[in-house]
Design brief:
Chain lengths: 124, 240
């Protein structure tokens, strides 16, 4: 590692060592490395949104999401969305019950009136 | 991007029953790599294969610094996958791999590595190591306790301090170098440089075409007893 690259390589190795020791974070480490490499190659430093979405975007403090978590969330959502449907079905059943009961009462009352009229007419 | 002549070879050597080394050449994106697996049969060979497969699937962005990022991201991902695999399949047994990769651009290149596989550049008859081993012995060399020559024959020369799969967080080193017409590059596992002296590597690397050169390096390692697997990739830019 001599000649023209000696300076940049000293900087790159020192930068990596800082990252390995936790002195700088991954986002800053990669940004600095891109700047060093681009200074060497003569290319423009890429915009951050061009850069690869690496573990920089990860939030280590967040609880990791597993397959079981996803299944549990889906199951809970399904049960929740089913509850109003079940309640509505029960309400429909209630309305129909009243209608049928009323209809039966009307039919029974009509029958009783017809029977009474038939008996009274024969006895007269 | 320049066109390249290259030859990649790997051999299990004389004493080993299995080859735990692996090599990859992806000339379309100017990427070459050697991986030296650790952990024995069905661990070391799987480890080096995982590294090589990950590198073979890297996509090259236009910007070279993003290419470096992409190679690093692939190695970080395979580090996690390897540790997961080792935990499930080998219940804590050591499984890991060194890696040294050469990435090339227009007149320049980058070396990305973890462990003690090496990248050399031969320029005008002079052999220059571009990577620096992640090993206990290299630390002693850096501290001025050992010379480079003493390091080669040190009993702890094979004790490495970094590898893919070696720790939960993988940190790879990156260095840049320039590429001139007539340069020749050698990626190799420790099975080569532990058998051949620097003078022998220098002499052989400077002779013949890349195919003849790579085969000659392997043949010499075997002639010396090849106690370990031996892998080499010889690369040179095509003369324009």
């Amino acid at each position: 590692m001599k000649s023209a690259s000696e300076g940049i390589n000293r900087d790159l190795l020192a930068l990596t060592e800082s990252f390995a020791e936790g002195a700088i974070g991954p986002a800053e480490f990669r940004r600095c490395r891109r700047e060093l490499v681009c200074a060497w190659t003569g290319e423009a430093v890429p915009e951050i949104d061009q850069a690869l979405p690496a573990e920089d975007d990860t939030q280590p403090a967040m609880k990791p999401v597993t397959d079981k978590d996803i299944e549990a969330a889906q199951s809970a959502a399904q049960t929740e969305s089913n509850q109003p449907a079940l309640a509505t079905a029960a309400a429909h059943r209630g309305h129909w019950g009243w209608w049928v009961t009323g209809l039966l009462l009307v039919v029974a009352a009509g029958g009783a009136v017809a029977l009474l009229w038939f008996i009274l007419r024969r006895s007269v | 991007m320049a066109d390249w002549h290259f030859c990649a070879l790997t051999d299990q050597g004389v004493r080993r029953k299995h080859n735990e080394d692996a090599v990859v050449a992806v000339p379309g994106i100017a990427l070459w790599a050697v991986a030296d697996g650790m952990g024995g049969h069905e661990a070391g060979d799987v480890a080096s294969r995982m590294v090589i497969d990950a590198l073979a699937s890297v996509k090259r962005p236009d910007n070279f610094s993003l290419f470096v990022d992409a190679v690093e991201a692939a190695l970080v991902a395979v580090n996690a996958a390897m540790r997961d695999h080792a935990g499930k399949e080998f219940s804590g047994r050591t499984m890991g791999s060194t890696v040294v990769a050469m990435l090339a651009g227009k007149g320049y290149g980058a070396c990305v590595w973890a462990g003690d596989s090496r990248l050399y550049r031969l320029r005008e008859g002079s052999l220059e190591p571009l990577s620096r081993d992640h090993s206990q012995v290299q630390r002693l060399v850096d501290a001025g306790v050992l010379s480079e020559e003493e390091a080669d024959s040190h009993p702890n020369a094979n004790v490495i301090t970094r590898a893919v799969g070696g720790a939960a967080a993988l940190v790879v080193d990156v260095v840049m170098f320039d590429i001139l017409p007539g340069d020749r590059f050698l990626l190799c596992s420790d099975g080569l440089y532990n058998e051949l002296s620097r003078e022998e590597i220098t002499q052989t690397l400077g002779q013949g075409g890349v195919e003849q050169c790579a085969q000659s390096l392997i043949d010499q390692a075997i002639h010396h007893g090849a106690r370990d697997n031996v892998s080499v990739i010889v690369i040179e830019p095509e003369a324009s």
